[in-house]
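Late entry, written up from scratch paper. The run itself happened at the end of the previous shift, but nothing got recorded in the book at the time, so transcribing now.
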Amino acid sequence: MNVSKNDEQLVARKAGGLNPAIIIPILFVIGVCIYLFVLGNPGNFKDADKLGGGSVAFSSTEGKDIHPESFLGIIYKGGVIVPILITFMITVIVFSIERALILGKAAGKGNLDNFVVQVRSLLNQNKVDEALEECDRQQGSVGNVVKEGLTTYKALSHDTTLNKEQKMVALNKAIEEATTLEMPMLEKNMMILSTLGTVATLIALLGTVIGMIKAFFALGSGGGTPDAAALSTGISEALINTALGIGTSAIAIILYNYFTSRIDGLTYKIDEIAMSIQQSFAEFN
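Output as recorded:
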């Protein structure tokens, strides 16, 4: 079965960037290590000298006998949901940095608005070669699509086998294919940010429920005299998970919308120049 050049390029672009199947498990291990050895450092708790080194998770006094002395220790007491939420936060940060770098590269060199104005001005004067030179200098996704469109423009200008309507269809198809080749890299991993914007809140809610269950259990098991320490621990666990989940979700949603708006902006620029290419071709050919 033969694979076209465009199909090969499309696969290459989809395969580029960070691979979530590899990165997310690594980030989960990092999240657990942060929970155990940073948040769970004995220095974050009272009587640290009695807890030994490494992590309170490996201390014989792990449980109700340890009391936080710093904010990191308080977060550690949030329970088993905390490392999951930490992983979510790290994942949002890592993939946001990746998207920022990819979209920055896609925007190319120089001011994109000036590039669009310059190319449209050259097309109005039928200076296709000069417009191609501008695309080479731009070196971004918009420049790549426009260059493909202009290359097809030149080829069709000297084609005597097609009528004008057929040439317009071929030109439009070339631009659409070039856009399709660029979009996978721009949109890759955006679904992760979108998903974490919702899932982080749900996982936090699970941690909140677990904390409240512990709080009400302490309230009921004490009979007439509730265990104040156990009650406060359960409530604090619930609130810690809520805070981490809401914070992660808010950041993920904000960044997702920001990157989506940047992708839409690039797509709009491509459509704007594509229209100019088609109008120029219809006028001068």
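DSSP finds eleven helices and no strands in the chain.
(Scratch paper discarded after transcription.)
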